[in-house]
């Protein structure tokens, strides 16, 4: 995620500085404050967090790292940025929800999480992300950008499209998802266009099911090989996962209403498939 922001800023000719854990103790308020003051920063973007590798099951083991990265760090940054009167943005996640709202619509930014420690069951990862948003409630000069299942045209292990091509069996689920490049641009536009601070669902309009995306992969890449699916979520949990997964649909009207529009999810997926080199993922099956 940090690399994606760096590439976008470079393309726009913007100056930026990256801060890594090796540069500064990110959990030290004084160290962060000194670094911000010496940098002359006018806006801060927090891409740091703990997602677990290869997936969120790892967060069930590394609970301390997950809690610190996803819940404690945002609170520290809030205190420092408010003390320095520095506007900033937090890359968050829509994985604090599951399913749709009771009225069948996507979750809005002010809907309480229903996949969290306060509304179990949930994964430890999702629980900490929900806590991270609680810590930022009422934060001054702060954007909270909710990402969901990133994808783009670059084949790789973190790309949703690559995962579908590489996994032996797939889980049928409905989700909102985010084109990585469009997500980053939308986040930067929030600051550049000076829209109101607050929480924004930053996903491509529309929702997809796994089988829909598989069909588009077959159509765009001209492949006819079968894709295997789990019989149910229960069978997926028994054989392929250690903790529940968030599958949810988000409402994006708030972002659109302030003039920031992402491509429809189908168009974004098809364009990514058309412009990418998928030979590695296709050859992995």
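-> sequence recovered:
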């Amino acid at each position: 995620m940090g690399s994606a922001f760096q590439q976008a800023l470079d393309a726009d000719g913007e100056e930026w500085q990256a801060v890594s854990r090796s540069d500064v103790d990110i959990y030290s308020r004084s160290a962060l404050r000194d670094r911000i003051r010496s940098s002359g920063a006018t806006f801060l973007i927090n891409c740091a967090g703990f997602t677990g590798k290869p997936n969120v099951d790892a967060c069930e083991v590394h609970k301390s790292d997950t809690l610190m990265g996803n819940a404690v760090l945002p609170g520290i940054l809030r205190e420092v940025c408010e003390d320095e009167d520095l506007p900033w943005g937090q890359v968050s996640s829509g994985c604090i929800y599951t399913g749709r709202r009771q009225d069948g619509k996507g979750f809005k930014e002010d809907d309480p999480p229903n996949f969290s420690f306060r509304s179990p069951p949930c994964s430890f990862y999702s629980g900490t992300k929900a806590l991270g948003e609680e810590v930022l409630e009422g934060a001054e000069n702060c954007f909270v950008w909710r990402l969901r299942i990133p994808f783009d045209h670059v084949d790789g292990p973190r790309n949703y499209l690559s995962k579908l091509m590489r996994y032996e069996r797939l889980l049928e689920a409905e989700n909102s998802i985010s084109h990585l490049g469009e997500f980053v641009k939308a986040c930067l536009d929030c600051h550049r266009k000076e829209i109101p601070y607050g929480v924004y669902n930053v996903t491509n309009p529309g929702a997809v099911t796994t089988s829909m995306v598989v069909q588009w992969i077959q159509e765009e890449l001209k492949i006819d090989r079968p894709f295997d699916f789990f019989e149910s979520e229960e069978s997926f949990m028994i054989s392929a996962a250690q903790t529940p997964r968030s599958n949810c649909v988000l409402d994006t009207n708030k972002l659109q209403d302030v003039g920031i529009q992402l491509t429809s999810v189908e168009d974004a997926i098809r364009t990514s498939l058309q412009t990418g080199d998928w030979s590695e993922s296709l050859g992995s099956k």
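The mean pLDDT is 96.
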